[in-house]
Request: fold
Amino acid sequence: MTRIEELEKILHPLLNGVITLRLLPVFTIGSNLGKQDNLSEKQIMVLIRIDQAENQALVSTIADELFLERPQVSRLVDTLEDVGFVNRKSTSRRQNKQVDRRKVKLEVTDTGLAFLSRFYEDRHQYYNEIIESFGMQEVKQFSQYLERFNNLISKKIKTLIE
Reply:
């Protein structure tokens, strides 16, 4: 295993965890993908959460996980739907047979998946550019701190949600 592969093995899972925990702006500084597709950081965060939920996501769930208001997430999803990155799938109907927009599952379209694939690839390259400047000892120490940080953030989020 090469030095870069070792560094990737140690840091990438941890960095992905940090990105998932709302630190996306740190990454988007080094990426032009959102700008190219006219997506905001929050829209990208919502798209990632929908993808991670494996098409079982609801607006309410995403709002809770990202600490955003439900109407705001609904507007973000509207935009993602307008650009063809997300579809809404109705799961229930009201008594008058109208679709209940509160109970709509979200799914990432093929176009959205293609964007995410490019996004993850770009993010991977961005990480590599940063971690190549670290020595192995620094990477190990940094990964320990990052893992601790992720654990502390996760605990904090759980207490806020409960």
User: Anything to note?
Assistant: The mean pLDDT is 77.
